[in-house]
Design brief:
Distance between the termini: 38 Å
Helix content: under 10%
Number of strands: 8
CATH topology: Metal Binding Protein, Guanine Nucleotide Exchange Factor, Chain A
Order of helices and strands: HEEEEEEEE
Protein name: PRC-barrel domain-containing protein
Strand content: over 45%
Low-confidence stretches: 1-12
Organism: Paenibacillus solisilvae
CATH class: Mainly Beta
Radius of gyration: 15 Å
CATH architecture: Beta Complex
Mean pLDDT: 87
Strand order of the largest sheet: 1-2-8-7-6-3
Number of domains: 1
Number of helices: 1
Structural class: mainly beta
Largest sheet: 6 strands, antiparallel
């Protein structure tokens, strides 16, 4: 067996939670949908897919899309990620640093 091949890491996408990085924080993507009536202003976009976990702003390990504030929520803790016309709720889980 080739030693270089055996030391190569492989990642199972399903073994890592769906996450995005924004504003120097890591957010977990929930299965909960946000009604379009609760969507506030656009604040950015997640543009880069990375494996296994996002490490810098604008990265995600699974979903890409635009980020929005949620009306009535603290924008630092909860945001909405638009994916294929659906707004998914994302929750701050910690700092990237």
């Amino acid at each position: 067996m080739n030693p270089a091949a055996s030391s190569k890491k492989t990642y199972n996408k399903s073994s890592y939670p769906s996450s995005v990085a924004w504003n120097d924080s890591l957010y977990g993507v929930s299965f909960g949908e946000v009604p379009s009536t609760k969507i506030g202003k656009e604040i950015g976009e997640i543009k880069h897919l990375v494996v296994p976990m996002p490490k810098k702003n604008g990265d995600s390990n699974e979903k890409l899309g635009k980020l929005y504030e949620i009306k009535g929520k603290e924008s630092q803790d909860e945001l909405a990620l638009e994916v294929n016309g659906t707004y998914l709720e994302i929750h701050k889980v910690g700092s990237l640093k």
